[in-house]
Structures are given as structure tokens and as C-alpha cells.
Write a structure and sequence with these properties.
Jelly Rolls, 11 strands, globular, 4-stranded mixed sheet, mainly beta
């Protein structure tokens, strides 16, 4: 459910940045590699984001995940590999600092928190 589709330009050509906003009513939310920015509203409850789908072989995708509710300390965001993707070797990663943002880079079933 992308809310924005920004056209980008530059010397390398053009493309799109897909931005999606979710809240606790969307949890658990399945994140696909096509979403570039995921804005997470942690105002009311904890939220789980599942890393659904895998990137095509040899292709690295990066998604920025941001706590826009500024309440992850009370309502953490759990990034779940859903049994398919690992994050720095672990099945989950918990965002528990209010207002924090992370980048998740993944290739096939391997993910890294940047």
C-alpha cells in the first residue's frame, strides 16, 4: 500500500522510491523488497514487520524503517525474518529506541541491519 511514489532523477537515470506508512492495525505487516521506506506509527501498540519474499539472486534491496510514532521504547517494532530471512544471522531484530531508523539490506535470504 504505497502512499507516495516519488520520481527521482540524477546522472544515473531515474526511478521510484516507494514509501509506505503502517500502524498497529496493519501488524503483522509483510514487507516486500519493492518498499524502499517503511514509516511505522508506534503510537498505540507494538508492531511486527515480516520480511516477506526474497530479493532476486544477485540483487541487493535496501529498505529504511523509521519509527514515526516516536514510541518504540514502549511499543517496539519487531523485524521478523519469517523463517526465511536472517538479520545479521538472527531470526529477528527489535527496534526499541523511540524515533530510531534502520536500513535493512537483503540479498536472497540474508539480511543485514545497517
Amino acid at each position: 500500500m504505497p502512499l507516495y511514489n516519488f520520481a527521482t532523477g540524477g546522472s544515473g537515470g531515474s526511478g521510484t522510491i516507494n514509501v509506505t506508512t503502517i500502524d498497529d492495525s496493519d501488524s503483522p505487516y509483510t514487507l516486500t523488497p519493492s518498499v524502499n521506506v517503511l514509516l511505522v506509527d508506534t503510537t498505540n501498540n507494538p508492531i511486527t514487520v515480516k520480511l516477506g519474499g526474497t530479493s532476486p539472486s544477485g540483487e541487493i534491496t535496501v529498505t529504511r524503517i523509521k519509527d514515526i510514532g516516536n514510541n518504540a521504547e514502549s511499543n517496539p517494532i519487531t523485524i521478523d525474518g519469517d523463517g526465511v530471512v536472517t538479520l545479521d544471522g538472527d531470526p529477528t531484530y527489535v527496534m526499541s529506541d523511540s524515533g530510531m531508523a534502520i536500513d535493512v539490506a537483503r540479498e536472497n535470504t540474508t539480511g543485514h541491519v545497517l
